[in-house]
Amino acid sequence: MGKILILSSGLWRLSGEIARLTGLDPVRVVGPLSPPGAEAVAGWGHKPTADAARRLAARRKLAYLAIEDGFLRSVRAGPAEPPSSLVLDRTGIYYDARTPSDLEGLIAAAAASAPAASAGRAIIEALKAHRLSKYNAAAPDGATGLPPAGRARRVLVVDQTYGDASIEGGLAGPGSFTAMLEAAIGENPGAEILVRLHPEVISGVKRGYLAELARRENLAVMAQPINPWRLFEEVAHVYTVSSQLGLEALMAGCRVTCFGCPFYAGWGLTDDRQEVARRRAGVTLDGLIAAAYRDYSHYFDAWTREPVDVFTACEQLAFLAGHFHRRWQPVVGWRVSRWKRDAISRMLDGAGGPVSYERDPARAVAMARAQGGAVAAWGRRADVIRPVAGAEDVPVITMEDGFLRSVGLGAGFTPALSYVFDQTGIYYDPAHPSDIETLLNAGGFDAALLERAGRLIAYIRSSGVTKYNLASRVPLPEPPAGREVVLVPGQVADDESIRRGAADLFAACPLASGGANLELLRRVRASRPEAFIIYRPHPDVEAGFRHGRIASQEQRRLADHIDTGSPLNRLLERIDRVETATSLLGFEALLRGRPVTVHAGPFYAGWGLTEDLAPLPRRGRRCSLEELTAAALICYPVYVDPVSRRVCTVEQVANRLLEAQNSPLLASERLRRLLGAVLGRARGVAQKAQLRINRLKL
User: Fold this and answer.
1) Cβ of 336: how many Cβ atoms within 10 Å?
2) Residue 45: what are its φ and ψ, rounded to 5°?
3) Are 77 and 203 in contact (CB under 8 A)?
4) Do 40 and 6 touch, CB atoms closer than 8 A?
5) Cα–Cα distance, 679 to 689 (Å, whole number)
6) Which parts of 397-502 fold into alpha helices (H)?
7) Alpha helix (H) residue ranges in 190-328
8) If residue 20 lies in a helix (H) or strand (E), which one and from where to where?
């Protein structure tokens, strides 16, 4: 394979994408020497930062390949997020009208192409539907900050960042912005002139051209982030030098005047104040969009970085932007374990800003109140801080593991790939409402979401993905023919889901005897005396980490088989029914089409899908399995991809879990599990000692 030389550290971070684009092996060049055997040099377009790369290419008589961000880049501006798309130009670069570019040739070729026009229309509709721009940190339906439109037309004048390469490349300069603003005022008497600053100017990263001029003319300056599609609903005419916003305005149906020569000018679609002799009128907007977004741009999966098409890229970018905008509230995490913070920080980062952490409850509440935000705490800790936060009118978010978690147990310090952040209650507490209960009671799941849930159910059934995905060599039971096979999952006896959702079971037997596990097993045996009962102890209980162990003789008396960890997905294929208190295994069984009898109040009970032995008065609606799956696995949790470390979809996590099942453990994961085992055993010893002390006190 030939080599492509890369001088820029920023481009080197995209070396995998460049290898896919070019079919060449990227080699980093540091210093004056460069390795032999190269075929090309890559650089950032025609920017000054690429001058060294262009000189190297000329000196060694190699092809210079111009790389740039594509027209759909990311949620936020800046290098923190990888680009959704890149362009590769072997002739020039799209924003430099001084020389031809590959894009110009593609636009000319698309002029008379019916397939290109059809593709362009579909791309425009996708961009409109998702309200996507190059950067997408502004809420799609956010406020513009403008007063209601009066009789006057509104005209938008677009600023850009100072020294942007597209300005000089577009045959323009600083004076073009002054001339543009004067023309917008003079050509639109009586109109309301709006000046829109660039997102990087708004964020303070860069400076622009028009802010001071606009204030001098007493014009409305739009200095807050505004989604372009929302903005175009307010204006009829857009003036630009060379901004991509002009192209998006064309797609929105606005009239566009260009004072520079961006790639979309000169084809008869814009009011041009400069000319490029190479370009001829007669190109349709649909054809131009197909050339720019389909043929010229190259798209990469947000998590795997494999090539994808423009429509997949739109869906992924819309997902990432939607998550960003939903996280509008600043969050202070209280007493969050350090090993959980990386994932939680990524999941809660959004429009409200990055998560901060605090161990002191009063300071955590004060910080949240000062920011107009919320305090997030783990499980029962949320109950501890809730009175303190409530006194200050600060909301509390309860955090817990999601239902597709990891390959390995949390007790072994295996990082979770999903968490839930419940702002109402928490899913395992049936005594109070929770976000998932609200979702299911409200219904209203659209057809696309239910179809997606159906595909997810089919994938889980075929792949065997579960919450923990533990590898196992334990043989499967061989139930006798002719007997109903009932699986009874054991749980951690003092788990919060038992404490809150199964109070009668929890109180019936002491922890030292197995607690709710023993009482549940007794009830199942009494109600199904002829059944073949398989009891599956919880792995943390079996390992001695947590309470809930039933004495061996009692297990053998009440159950026909003790399953110590056979492959869960295959075990569920061999049983006829699950009977449980609150175990997630009941939900796993529902996903695989098995009947489930529920003795308490887990989140999946009360919706007409289970045989319910405990009253759940707030849950009166009958749900389909697809609705339950949509709520529990798509809408309620947040997921993070373990490789890219980006927030992702449930499907991406399910794929990663399946990959990890079939891969050897890394040394770091083995070390985490060993540490978890040591600390778990220490905690188990401490719990047993405390039980003995409690009995002595009695």
Assistant:
1) 20
2) 50, -135
3) yes
4) no
5) 15
6) 435-442, 447-463, 496-501
7) 199-202, 211-216, 228-232, 244-251, 285-289, 310-326
8) helix 15-22
Helices (H), 111-222: 114-130, 165-169, 174-187, 199-202, 211-216
- Residues 12 and 27: their CA atoms lie apart, in Å, by 9
Identify whether the C-beta of residue 53 lies closer than 8 Å to the C-beta of residue 64. Answer: yes
Give tens-digit pLDDT for 565-624.
Answer: 999 999 999 999 999 999 999 999 999 999 999 999 999 999 999 999 999 999 989 999
What pLDDT score was predicted for residue 17? Answer: 98
Query: Which residue in the block uniquely carries the two structure tokens 């992924």?
Result: 316
Task: Tell me which fold the domain 442-667 belongs to.
Answer: Rossmann fold (3.40.50)
Q: Give the H/E segment covering residue 154.
A: strand 154-158
Q: Closest Cα partner for 617 from 595, 601, 630? A: 601
Tokens describing residue 251:
């797609």
Mind listing the pLDDT tens digit for each residue in 180-220? 999 999 999 999 999 998 877 777 778 899 988 998 999 99
How far, in Å, CA of 483 to CA of 473, rounded? Answer: 26
What would the two tokens of residue 141 be?
């339906």
308 SS3 class: strand
- Alpha-carbon distance of 488 to 581, in angstroms, equals 9
User: Residues near 229 by Cβ (< 8 Å), separated by ≥ 6?
Assistant: 128, 131, 133, 140, 248, 252
Query: DSSP string spanning 537-606?
Result: --HHHHTTSSS-PPPHHHHHHH-SEE-SS--HHHHHHH-SEEEESS-THHHHHHHTT--EEESS--TTSS
Are 133-283 and 442-667 the same fold in CATH?
yes
Helix H or strand E segment including 375? strand 374-378
Q: How far is Cα 342 from Cα 340, in angstroms, rounded to an integer?
A: 6
Q: Which tokens go with 413?
A: 């310090």
Q: Which residue from 591, 614, 609, 603 is spatially nearest to 637, judged by alpha carbons? A: 603
Angle CA 629–630–632, to nearest 5: 60
CA separation for the pair 80, 61 (Å, rounded): 34
Q: Identify which of 628, 499, 479, 471 has the alpha carbon closest to the alpha carbon of residue 560.
A: 479
CA distance 115 to 121: 10
Residue 236 is which amino acid?
Answer: A
The CA distance from 59 to 75, in Å, is 38
Strand locations in 480-537 (E): 485-489, 532-536
Per residue, the 3-state secondary structure of 587-629, as one string, reads HHHHHCCCCEEECCCCCCCCCCCCEECCCCCCCCCCCCHHHHH
Helices and strands counted in the chain (H then E): 28, 26
Q: Where exactly are the structural domains of the chain?
A: 133-283, 442-667
CATH number of this structure's domain 133-283:
3.40.50
pTM listed for this prediction: 0.91
> Residue for token digits 């609705």?
627
Give the CA dihedral 314, 315, 320, 324, nearest 10 degrees.
90
Report whether pLDDT(664) > 70.
no
**Which SS3 state, helix, strand or coil, does residue 46 take?**
coil
Residues 6+ apart with CB under 8 A from 149: 192, 234
End-to-end CA distance of the chain: 77
Read off the DSSP letter of residue 485: E
Number of neighbouring beta carbons within 10 Å of residue 547:
24
- Residue 402 clears pLDDT 70, i.e. is over it: yes
Question: For every residue of 319-359, which 3-state class applies, written as one string?
Answer: HHHHHHHHCCCCEEEECCCHHHHHHHHHHHCCCCCCCEEEC
Joined together, the tokens standing for residue 639 give 């997921």
**Whole-number CA gyration radius for the chain:** 30
